[in-house]
Specification:
- The chain has 195 residues and is α/β, with parallel strands linked by helices.
- It has one domain: Pyruvate-ferredoxin Oxidoreductase, domain 3.
- The protein contains eight helices and six strands; from the N terminus they run βαβββαβααβαααα.
- The protein has a six-stranded mixed beta sheet with strand order 2-3-1-4-5-6, with helices on both faces.
- A hairpin with an 8-residue loop joins strand 2 and strand 3.
- The two termini are 16 Å apart.
Length: 195
């Protein structure tokens, strides 16, 4: 999937899930792999559980940080509905890596609407390469439920051409030392998920 053109990764989640740290780690990995990297984030109500979106673009030379409609190579989702919301940005031959997690938005919590059924099937109707990851279960297995973002990065690493050492070096640089060991375990558990 990755060649000498610009590759686009759209990250979508909910405030508090570690989406922004994950985009920092991903950008660091891609820079270590020798790419020009541009990143843009939208996180208006992020601290209150609102939508968080990060655009990460990389290649030999990247001029704009935002991904055009229908041009995302990879949709990297931290929550099912947030991932589904941005599906129109993904190429039909792209890939989706998504956490198998449902967080009810305010309209659902207030009973004004219902959470859609079987989002994974809807994702597969648009994109053939969909990887659903039980991030929370693997994070708990690693020893800390707050490492879901690192589990998901491990799963994402299977879709990208970057050396394992580059991922580990980026985490050593950006994850606080007291949380590094559990995050490294979480990353390896996510990396072990192949589909």
């Amino acid at each position: 999937m990755i060649d000498n053109k610009v590759t686009n990764i759209l990250m979508a989640g909910v405030g508090g899930q570690g989406t922004l740290l994950a985009s920092e780690i991903l950008s660091e990995v891609l820079m270590q792999a020798g790419h020009d990297v541009k990143k843009a984030e939208v996180h208006g109500m992020a601290q209150r559980g609102g939508s968080v979106v990060s655009h990460v673009r990389f290649g030999p030379k990247v001029y704009s940080p935002t991904i055009p409609e229908g041009k995302a190579d990879i949709l990297f989702g931290f929550e099912l509905l947030e991932t589904y919301r941005y599906l129109s940005l993904v190429k039909p031959n792209g890939a989706v890596v998504v956490n198998n997690l449902r967080i009810a938005p305010p309209s659902v919590a207030l009973g004004q609407s219902r959470y859609p059924d079987d989002i994974a099937t809807k994702l597969r109707q648009h994109v053939s390469d969909v990887r659903v990851v039980d991030g929370l279960q693997l994070a708990e297995q690693a020893g800390n439920p707050r490492t879901v973002n690192t589990v998901l990065l491990g799963a994402l690493s299977n879709v990208l051409e970057a050396a394992n050492e580059q991922w580990l070096a980026a985490m050593r640089k950006l994850v606080p030392a007291r949380f590094l060991d559990v995050n490294l375990r979480a990353f390896e558990l996510g990396r072990a998920v192949k589909d």
